[in-house]
Amino acid sequence: MTDLTRLSAAELAEKIHSREVSSEEVTRAHLDRISEVDSEIHAFLHVDADGALAAARAVDETIAAGEPASPIAGVPLALKDVFTTRGMPTTCGSRTLENWVPPYDATVTRKLREAGVPILGKTNMDEFAMGSSTENSAFGPTRNPWDRERVPGGSGGGSSASLAAFEAPLAIGTDTGGSIRQPAAVTGTVGVKPTYGGVSRYGLVAFSSSLDQGGPCARTVLDAALLHEVIAGHDPLDSTSIDAPVPPVVKAAREGASGDLTGVRIGVVRELSGEGYQPGVLASFDAAVAQLRELGAEIVEVSCPHFTYGLSAYYLIAPSECSSNLARFDAMRYGLRVSDDGEHSAEEVMSASREAGFGPEVKRRIMLGTYALSSGYYDAYYGSAQKVRTLIARDFTAAFEKVDVLVSPTTPTTAFRLGERVDDPLAMYLADLATIPANLAGNAAMSVPSGLSDDDGLPVGLQIMAPALADDRLYRVGAAYEAARGPVLDKMPELKGAPTT
């Protein structure tokens, strides 16, 4: 009998729409898988079994009566706990929002429901999306299915781990500095950061408004493309949403699967390799570039000199915007409130609640951002960082005049051990060294598995970057490479389903 949890989203959709299996069967199989292994992985913060099964039954009725609501109708999904969900908790991995149930759906949530996608539940994440390991969650870390003593990346480690553990065939993440791509790289899955503004941010709890971007997570490039087309598109509720057609990502993924990249120019970014990169990561990347050349692509070395300043600029811009955005969590309207005994002033209640509700990393970034925005320092820090951001965008523009896409390793290392970097913020931040430039410029970027490192047998990611609104280029190149590379997740050790002690 076919194990429904091992099939791709595209395969499941085909079986559901032909009525070979029901969406209810598929959804129940994934809920059973969650029950079996999630005590070991902790990918989910909340599982909505009743809601998912009700949505699945509704899809089955729709298919029996006529056409499915979308190409992935009936295929269940895991949703990062940073998108608001009516009737379901949205915590952002923080005690500040523990047990908060929003009165409205994010646009992404609404589009998923309208597309007939059953939402299995909400996935674990670094608190307010601040982190690279999912260890900053107030509700405990998520573990990497490849090695339960290692991190699954962050901030969206719950979404990527749910895919690698076969708990969900599709997932949604957000990417502010690499939080979709970095977890994808270290779990052997696919993650895409669409062009900034390509997917609505309405109802996405804001960390850094000029950088945050929701996007698809999957086990195959085609699956990511199918999900991308469902959640993308202009939204009048989001002032940063782009009023332009969604790039033809599904068509590009299907064409790319033929494996022919003749005529495609691919730039290797000189500044995103070398010192500081794990030898096994570089070896996997070099093999991936050689494979792309064999598929017919022209390989060109490209210099983007200001990329080396991306990390510094990001850690001024993102904390500054976080300081502003998180000011709304003041204990006065919703969320955690402590010392509410009538004997304390509003200011004292606010201070005590924020002290109790925010974790160390969130406090660190709020303080850093508040300092960078303070009188006398704004131009020296935040203003200068924005100038560097412009230079990085210009580097991308110059590079894309020579090539169609850029490639690099997604992360400098494979998954590190739990606890290894929690007391060393700088080492933690370096995990996003290669992903941050695309966020600063607003370009589209993808991580696709490039095999396993010779050093430790853990997954490595190949990052592909494309110009804004040219997301389809990612999918063409990613699908061609994926077809030539072959499967990666089948090499993962089987989960035993026993709780970790």
Q: What's the topology here?
A:
Elements: H1 9-17, H2 23-41, E1 44-47, H3 49-65, E2 77-80, H4 107-114, E3 119-123, H5 157-164, E4 170-174, H6 181-187, E5 190-193, E6 214-218, H7 221-231, H8 249-256, E7 265-269, H9 279-294, E8 298-302, H10 310-325, H11 346-357, H12 360-373, H13 379-400, E9 405-409, H14 425-429, H15 436-441, E10 444-452, E11 459-466, H16 471-485
Parallel strand pairs: 2-3, 2-4, 7-8, 7-9
Antiparallel strand pairs: 1-3, 4-6, 5-6, 5-10, 9-11, 10-11
Give your account of this protein's structure:
The protein has a single domain (4-307, 390-491), classed as Alpha-Beta Complex (Amidase signature (AS) enzymes), CATH 3.90.1300. Helix content is 39%, strand content 12%. Helix 2 runs antiparallel to helix 3, helix 7 packs antiparallel against helix 8 (249-256) and helix 10 (310-325) crosses helix 13 (379-400). The radius of gyration is 21 Å and the shape is globular. It is built from 16 helices and 11 strands. With 501 residues, the chain is α/β, with parallel strands linked by helices. The model has no long low-confidence stretch (mean pLDDT 96).
Strand order of the largest sheet: 1-3-2-4-6-5-10-11-9-7-8
- Strand tally, please? 11
Number of helices: 16
Q: How much of the residues is beta strand, in percent? A: 5-15%
The average pLDDT value, as a whole number, equals 96
CA-to-CA gap between the ends?
Answer: 33 Å
Main beta sheet: strand number and arrangement? 11 strands, mixed
CATH architecture: Alpha-Beta Complex
Weakly predicted, low-confidence segments: none
